[in-house]
Fold this protein.
Amino acid sequence: MFLIIVRHCDSIRRSDYEWSQSEWSHSTETVSRHFNNICSHLVRLAPQFIGPPDFDNIPPVITNNPNYFPYFQDCIGAIDGTHIPCIIVANLQVAYRNRKGFTSQNVLAIVDFDMKFTYIVAGWEGSVHDARVLRDAMSDPNFSFPKPPRDKYFLVDSGYVNRRGFFAPYRGTNYHLRDRRKVGGDRKKELFNYRHASLRNAVERTFRIWKSRFRIL
């Protein structure tokens, strides 16, 4: 039943109704209690599956691609935030309402280039900017943020600060291939931004697959 709910984004009440039509009849209270228990156990299991990135080896996706190597040889992953819809009590909805108009949690994640999560922090209000979520995760020791070694870095988008350990693209410069075809602009910066966006796209693709598989997200 847990998998049905998270896979198909069914509500507990609806899932309870569907199961009540079969031989596996359970009350809504029972379903809700066990659903929450499973969520709690998954949180405790998370460290066994979500571990720090590999700081020592260059990812094959970089070494095997002349567009990325040696330019991004010290890159160890990509960071981004994503919004997970949530239901919030009325007096807290303003803080959780994001710029697209729905209530959500802002979830920060680090992904390696095998499209595996290596770090996640959840719970922030949807109205909070991605950069603030990252700043807080780094400053609070309880979040155990995997700070990169001095010579390594994560790729981030232009919404984050470009500083040691976090490599952002050039601001005010085109990102995408279709934009690079336009006349004018600094071609070297455009090419860098295009390759930066192409490599960093690993985190966006991971989010898409994640949400496609678990519709509740």
User: Anything to note?
Assistant: The helical segments are 2-8, 12-20, 28-49, 60-63, 93-96, 130-139, 177-180, 187-213. The radius of gyration is 20 Å. The first strand starts at residue 75 and ends at 85.
